[in-house]
Amino acid sequence: MFVLPVIEAIKRFHVGDFTGFDEHVQRSGGGRSAVGRLRVRQSHLFVHHFIYLHNTSLAGDSVRITFSSKCRSRQKLHREGRIELPPVRRRPPNPLVVRKKPAAVEVDTRPLRDRLAEIRPLEFRSVRRTPEEPLFNSLLEQYHYLRYKQPVGEHLKFLVYAGQRPVACFAWSSSAHYLGCRDRFLGWSDPARRKNLHLLAYNPRFLILPWVEVPHLASHLLARMTRMLSGEWERTYGHPIYFVETFIDSERYRGTCYRAANWMVLGRTTGRGKNAWSKRPNRPIKEVLGYPLRRDFRELLSV
Fold it and tell me: Which of 156, 228, 181, 172 is closest to 205 using CA atoms?
């Protein structure tokens, strides 16, 4: 039996700290031969443990291991046939891929057909981290065509009540990092965008419950929501909001209630998303609408 001289070959593959490796190999000699097994963690290569070779015909020969320096992951090395990984024993669930649906919550679904004046007063409740949040999540999951999706970053959730009955849901979250038509409308440079992006909010979900048929309700709720949003945001996160935005799937909707509430059409998305590797659209192109919460919004967002 023998110890294969593979240290230099390993060092040729990746620069790393091999202090004490020679002694480890020597101590591993005896009944079997030891070759340092390569383990790749992200962009770094480590010696993890040893595999044993039984082919004694290699005794005294130097073994040259050649790998491409561009191969950084175990999976890529495995696909190229350079190393052999053991079979996958278990795939842990990924909560970002396998989404747990909100539990259904029963509500009164009797038709509500009245004039706007007859269902007042309307109460807006911020329900994030309250006992009513499961109801909010359930309503979006059951009745919004995009279903419920957990908002990202800073976010707020609102239920609107007419008496004891919920009639509408609003979700607000952090705005998109890059949005060409919006950034041009605001006159943003890259430094201004990075500095002031947190002063914008995005409306990913707005739902009037399907059994509610009240003329002009949607635009009325949007107008009230935008008047109170900045104050609620400041109470929660310690800073105001000066501008809000939303996306409209123009193949499904015209965005009539937003236009009636004086939201402006800023342009269209590119349909590529933030992680796109090509310039080809890989998702629906949507209309971008925006609404300033202050008259001096451009000055406030350019400092």
Answer: 172
Shortest CA distance to 266 belongs to which of 209, 196, 202, 223? 202
Its pTM stands at 0.68
- SS3 sequence, 224-249? HHHHHHHHHHHHHHCCCCCEEEEEEC
| pLDDT 10s digits, 66-98 | 433 343 467 778 888 888 888 878 777 766 566
Report the chain's mean pLDDT, rounded to a whole number: 80
Domains of the chain: 7-79 (no CATH), 113-302 (3.40.630.30)
Tally of CA atoms within 13 A in the half-sphere of 275 that contains its CB: 0
Distances (CA, A) of 165 to 7, 220, 282: 73, 17, 39
Structure tokens at 283: 């998702």
